[in-house]
Amino acid sequence: MDEDNVKVTVTIGQKPLTVIIKREWEHYFREAEKVINDSFFDFAKKWQYKDQQDLTNMVLLDFVVKGLADKERLKAYDEELVPMMESLKQLTEEFPID
Length: 98
Fold this sequence. Notes:
Layout: E1 5-12, E2 15-22, H1 26-46, H2 52-94
Antiparallel strand pairs: 1-2
Helix pairs in contact: 1-2
């Protein structure tokens, strides 16, 4: 392992996972650990489950669905924003500000 990498152990749903990552990514892994576990324990309170794998699958499904919905919203936003930006660029070219 070179000095740019670090071995990190994160715990997801009471299961420790050890990964080797770029040092500058460690804070993202720590934040991801917190977000996943918060979601994991929220599902544990609300849903009946047979084992922790069921909860992990629900968390994964929830994150992917939210990610896809966000992607769709961003695409719609871009489709509206890009033409407005182009119009604004044309206006600023017509009326230069000195």
